[in-house]
């Protein structure tokens, strides 16, 4: 219960942590099933909170998708969360860019390439980045 009290976990993440503490795998699965039935453990809730947290920190959908996969979240659930129309990826991209580089356009192609690499590392797609530079700086 202490693991759940600190923050939300995915089922796979919690299973991995409990098995690492030498608990029996079958017993862990039974406990996890009970927690899911009692709605104390929810991959949907975990994915939503994780997405929200990472987006606020300036990460894009590509990186968040990979991180959710690493944490054992179902691919269909990931697609549902990332496809939510309320998730404003362009706003997140703009905030990440402006926080690092300011609102000024890049001085040359080398500077633009540097900014593109940064935004790709943050998890934004090439299409999103190209659209941002085209719409914001006419580049």
List how many beta strands DSSP finds. Answer: 0
Note the gap between the termini.
52 Å
Per the principal axes of the C-alpha atoms, what is the gross shape? Answer: elongated
Q: State the major sheet.
A: none
Q: Helix/strand-derived class?
A: mainly alpha
Q: Care to describe what's here?
A:
- The protein folds into 2 domains: 2-82, no CATH class; 89-137, Arc Repressor Mutant, subunit A (Orthogonal Bundle).
- The chain is built from 9 helices and no strands.
- Helix 2 packs antiparallel against helix 3 (25-37) and helix 5 (61-70) runs antiparallel to helix 6 (75-82).
- It has 139 residues and is mainly α.
- 71% of the residues lie in helices and 0% in strands.
Brief digest:
By secondary structure, the chain is mostly helical. The chain has helices at residues 2-6, 11-20, 25-37, 43-56, 61-70, 75-82, 89-101, 109-121, 126-137.
Please give the structural blueprint.
Elements: H1 2-6, H2 11-20, H3 25-37, H4 43-56, H5 61-70, H6 75-82, H7 89-101, H8 109-121, H9 126-137
Characteristics:
139 residues, Arc Repressor Mutant, subunit A, mainly alpha, 2 domains
